[in-house]
Amino acid sequence: MESGRLSSTEQALIRESWQKVSGNLLQHGIVLFTRLFELDPGLLPLFQYNCRQFSNAQECLSSPEFLDHIRKVMLVIDAAVTHLENLPSLEEYLSNLGKKHQGVGVKLDSFSVVGESLLFMLEKCLGTAFSPDVREAWTRLYGAVVKAMSRGWDVRKEGK
């Protein structure tokens, strides 16, 4: 994650903007995942709990198990924000998280739509405070996180 080093200005922009989001992680996470399913409804079948397939995004988004997943995703983002000065400390954790995502059928290219959904959520939450500089800082942070997660990917399994 060394190439993903963020400037002190970018770190400050991320921290300041995240402070506004972190007051209600679940609510903002629901915005993120609602947008994700709007952009790529094909991701919905990846989310099954107790062998239960959701018939639509709303059913999934209201499931207690999925709400728990949203909390976990938001906590991963929170961990990245907390460790902005030392992102490499999260490398092993994120690599294992990538491996886990591949194991449930997530494709690497799905992370681009997750990134779009993250930026959408931040823009909705921050309004006019979501400046081009804030967008760029978050884009760089998310890129570093995805890069670390992709290290856990077995590319030989990607096509299966």
Key terms for this structure?
160 residues, mainly alpha, two-stranded antiparallel ribbon, 8 helices, 66% helix, globular
Mean pLDDT rating: 91
- Widest sheet: strand order? 1-2
Described by the principal axes of the CA atoms, the overall outline is globular
Largest sheet: 2 strands, antiparallel
**Ends apart, CA distance between termini:** 28 Å
Determine the fraction of residues in helical runs and give it as a percent range: 55-70%
| H/E element sequence | HHEEHHHHHH
Rounded Rg: 15 Å
Number of helices: 8
Strand content: under 5%
How does this model look, in words?
- The protein is 66% helix and 2% strand.
- The protein starts with 7 loop residues before the first helix and ends with a helix.
- A hairpin with a 2-residue loop joins strand 1 (48-49) and strand 2 (52-53).
- It is mostly helical and 160 residues long.
- It contains eight helices and two strands, in the order ααββαααααα.
- It has helices spanning 8-21, 25-39, 57-61, 64-82, 91-103, 110-126, 132-150, 155-158, and strands spanning 48-49, 52-53.
- The radius of gyration is 15 Å and the shape is globular.
- The chain has a two-stranded antiparallel ribbon with strand order 1-2.
- It is found in: Cytoplasm, Cytosol; Mitochondrion matrix.
- One of its GO terms (cellular component) is mitochondrial matrix.
- GO terms for molecular function: heme binding; metal ion binding; oxidoreductase activity; oxygen binding; oxygen carrier activity.
- Residues 5-154 form the Globin domain.
- It catalyses: Fe(III)-heme b-[protein] + nitric oxide + H2O = Fe(II)-heme b-[protein] + nitrite + 2 H(+).
